[in-house]
Amino acid sequence: MISDQPFRWFFIAIFLGAIFISSYFRRRARQVGGTIPRASEGGRSVFLRLLVAAPLYLSFFAYMLNPRWMEWSSLSLPTWLRWVGVVAGLGTLPMIYWVMISIGKNVSETVRTKEGHTLVSHGPYRWIRHPLYTVATLTFVSLGVVASNWFIMAIALVAFLGIAIFVVPKEENELVHKFGAAYQEYQLRTGKFTPRRRQVR
């Protein structure tokens, strides 16, 4: 039986790589385009974000520090599948870079639009309206597979459902209010999380 140690190191590399890329572009966006405090969304939204983010990131850190701390939710995945998770996780890093460099100064920690917000329709945004959420979910699920841990995968999917049901509708309402018909036309030719199979007329 292969040691869990190689998977732990790949887990750390993927996680830190994703955090580094995201943090770099977010910091640059704050410097160029300003920032909107999370508190502007209201206490309820902040609480719901923490309710999902806290267990997700705590499970990440627990596995990275000591995989035994997450043994209570371990899965018996075949080794080849965990290596698929490694490849998929590493593959999301250039995808994160592509998304972040495409959205540029418009990236925000809230659902609200910035004063100088522009409508991005290049890069992955040419086909998908919310590629950041798609790639983040792929990264988190891949990490769950690498760790062979059902809790990490489950909480990542719960986070995605929360985003799809509660966050994205608010974001899109803000964007329609900001850009009007231009964003509505953009909605018709793109998918939310995956490319649209055919354009809506």
Short structural description:
This protein is mainly alpha-helical. Helices cover 66% and strands 0% of the residues.
Please characterize this protein's 3D structure.
With 201 residues, this protein is mainly alpha-helical. The chain has one domain: Four Helix Bundle (Hemerythrin (Met), subunit A) (Up-down Bundle), CATH 1.20.120. Helix content is 66%, strand content 0%. The protein has helices at residues 5-33, 43-65, 79-103, 131-147, 150-179, 181-189. The longest helix has 30 residues, at 150-179.
User: Number of domains in the coordinates?
Assistant: 1
Q: Which structural class best describes the helix and strand composition?
A: mainly alpha
Unreliable stretches: none
The helix-strand sequence is HHHHHH
Largest sheet: none
Q: Write down how many β-strands occur, each being a DSSP E stretch of 2 or more residues.
A: 0
Percentage of residues assigned to helices: 55-70%
Give me the number of helical elements: 6
Could you tell me how far the N terminus lies from the C terminus, measured between alpha carbons in angstroms? 55 Å
CATH class, please?
Answer: Mainly Alpha
Radius of gyration: 18 Å
How much β-strand is present in the residues?
A: under 5%
- Which geometry do the CA atoms define? globular
Arithmetic mean pLDDT:
91
**What is the CATH fold-level name?**
Four Helix Bundle (Hemerythrin (Met), subunit A)
